[in-house]
Design brief:
It comes from Streptomyces aidingensis. This protein is mostly helical. The protein contains 13 helices and six strands. Helix 6 runs antiparallel to helix 12.
Length: about 350
């Protein structure tokens, strides 16, 4: 019998759910800034930094597990067979490893603002194209226009900014695109699982993905240099704690809690706060320069992603979808009407990134 995850019912007000998602997206927008500061002072590389983030986030999520069990118990209708479970955990953990590490490498090479915008902008586009090519999902006229707009924004961003004082570096853009590819592969994989009737508790999936990611990254992190330098150790430790606690453990917890009351399609638009937050922090805290072409490309790219989310919401009513962020999966059914909750539920999709 297929494994299905059924979240516990929630009476959370919509306003509170919206607030949780907004806070989560804002917190995610600060992750790259913390990484940029750590690159400058700690001597850590992107592999070691991702290891400490996932290992720290994993420890905090496990520490708060008893509280979660008391507040929101999950109901399982059947146990998932061992082999599919191992495959699911391995694929999601590997995808998390690729996209997190490549994202930090992109931030290191081309800056926080550009690295975040390229990663977040390219991800939904790759998901839409992958779903069309490998899963037969129709993109629709609105979706096709949005994808074309996103590609145009990416070209403006890269070609317009690369020649201006090194604002946009091709190596950083390539890392960001690799990050988006890893994220997109995880999203498409979980979408396929959902279509086959197999779901998973989002908390358990997040924990297992973090564990696989940390295990995969430990050997290369040791080669890169696992321990930070001692020159400014106190500041480095505080930044590492912040990275694990706020944009990782707290961000995931608030996001999944908010999705109990907020439509996933709505959340996919709200999380565009993340690149805006990253851009503001990049300018005000890190002193990055955003040129006119960079701003124009960013605006076109984010507008196209918002349009793609709207197109998904309009065309995806009734289709089984999932929510993925960083290898964390949220499978959520929302009835069209209160009377239809037990008669033809549907899932929304809100692929989000960091």
């Amino acid at each position: 019998m297929p494994h299905r995850y059924q979240p516990a019912s929630s009476a959370m007000p919509v306003v509170r759910g919206l607030a949780f998602v907004i806070i989560a997206a804002t917190a995610w927008g600060t992750a790259g800034a913390a990484a940029a500061l750590l690159f400058d002072s700690s001597g850590l590389g992107p592999v070691a930094l991702t290891f400490w983030r996932t290992a720290g986030g994993l420890a905090l999520l496990l520490a708060f597990r008893p509280l979660r069990r008391r507040s929101a118990p999950a109901v399982r209708t059947a146990a998932e067979p061992l082999r599919p479970r191992v495959v699911r955990i391995a694929v999601l953990g590997a995808g998390l490893t690729v996209f997190q590490t490549a994202y930090f490498a992109g931030v290191r090479d081309t800056g926080l603002a550009v690295g975040t915008v390229v990663t977040l902008g390219a991800g939904p586009v790759l998901i839409a194209l992958g779903a069309r090519l490998w899963m037969g999902e129709r993109l629709g006229r609105g979706g096709a226009v949005a994808v074309a707009g996103a590609l145009a924004g990416l070209l403006i961003l890269v070609l317009g900014g690369s020649g201006q004082a090194g604002t946009v570096r091709p190596s950083g853009v390539l890392w960001a695109l690799l990050s988006a590819a890893g994220y997109s592969a995880v999203t498409l994989f979980t979408r396929g699982l959902r279509r086959s009737g197999r779901g998973a508790d989002p908390y358990a999936t997040t924990v297992s993905s973090f564990a696989v990611c940390a295990a995969c990254l430990l050997p290369p992190a040791l080669l890169e240099g696992l321990l930070p330098g001692t020159a400014d150790l106190g500041r480095t430790l505080w930044l590492l704690v912040y990275l694990a606690a706020v944009p990782t453990a707290l961000g995931y917890a608030l996001y999944f809690a908010g999705l109990a009351a907020v439509r996933a399609a709505t959340a996919s638009v709200i999380v565009l706060i993340e690149p805006v937050t990253a851009a503001v922090v990049a300018v005000l805290v890190l002193g990055e320069r955003l040129t006119a072409p960079t701003l124009a490309g960013t605006a076109v790219l984010l507008a196209a992603v918002a349009a793609l989310a709207v197109a998904e919401a309009r065309s995806g009513a009734g289709a089984g979808r999932e929510v993925v962020r960083g290898g964390a999966v949220r499978l959520r059914a929302v009835g069209r009407e209160e009377r239809a909750v037990h008669h033809g539920d549907r899932d929304d999709t809100a692929p989000v990134r960091e």
